[in-house]
Design a protein that fits this description.
Elements (H helix, E strand, L loop, with lengths): L2 H23 L6 H15 L4 H12 L2 H7 L2 H5 L1 H6 L1 H26 L3 H7 L6 H11 L3 H25 L5 H11 L1 H11 L1 H20 L1 H10 L1
């Protein structure tokens, strides 16, 4: 097996294994994205396999992130009338999500005394990776930190969603989808799509809308950060 096939095979097998394990145990914390990554790191360490060798195949999978994200719009198209009927709810929820994210990162900056570059790197933590990288670059952040915080936000957002829904007694598929798409971006949207089409449609719409609004508000953010 060549290195390219090895990287692809390891990624698919690790993800499939954890996904099956999660479905059998029904443990929300057993996130396939997080634990398949940890499993791959463990295997590479045990067998002393170079990360460069693994990434020959891993890079091909990484290249599929953009088309995979686009495919999340399928439930949106199938439920377009439902989306249009709830446009006001969608816009309000996304705006609230963007503002609350900004307040959270501002609080983190002051409470943790974050350097400006680090602070600017975590501002786009709740939008999908492809857009977040461009936003962080525009703001003057460090893209590696942005990627890490986006991944952590998505994974833990998807993992903790069932717990918070239970605590707050949230049962509406519309609200759950909106929360996942706005706060946990593509990872949360993928979880919503896997649950049902209504959740998937609202998560996909909020994912797209929050990304677009964040990009459009970039100039305002830059001026605001200069004052803080």
């Amino acid at each position: 097996m060549n290195n390219i096939s090895f990287g692809i095979a390891m990624s698919l097998i690790a993800y499939y294994f954890v996904d099956v394990l999660q479905k059998k145990t029904k443990q929300a914390w057993l996130n396939p994205l997080l634990f398949s990554g940890l499993l791959i790191i463990l295997i590479l360490s045990i067998f002393n396999i170079s990360i460069d060798d693994y990434m020959l195949g891993g890079d091909l999978i990484k290249a599929l992130i953009a088309p995979a994200t686009i495919s999340l719009a399928i439930p949106l198209y199938k439920n377009k009338q439902l989306i249009l009927d709830n446009a006001k709810l969608l816009f309000t929820a996304v705006c609230c999500g963007i503002v609350s994210n900004l307040i959270l990162v501002l609080a983190a900056k002051h409470l943790l005394s974050l350097k400006n570059e680090v602070f600017l790197s975590i501002v786009p933590k709740s939008i999908t990776t492809a857009i977040a990288i461009d936003v962080a670059t525009y703001l003057g952040g460090i893209t590696e930190i942005t990627i890490a915080t986006v991944l952590i936000t998505g994974i833990f957002g998807a993992m903790l969603s069932p717990l918070f829904n239970k605590i707050l007694n949230v049962k509406s598929d519309k609200i759950i989808g909106l929360a996942l798409g706005t706060s946990a971006h593509a990872v949360g949207t993928a979880k919503a799509v896997g649950t049902n089409e209504v959740q998937g449609a609202f998560a996909s719409t909020s994912l797209i809308l929050s990304g677009l609004l964040t990009v459009l508000l970039n100039p305002l953010f830059v001026q605001l950060f200069k004052l803080l």
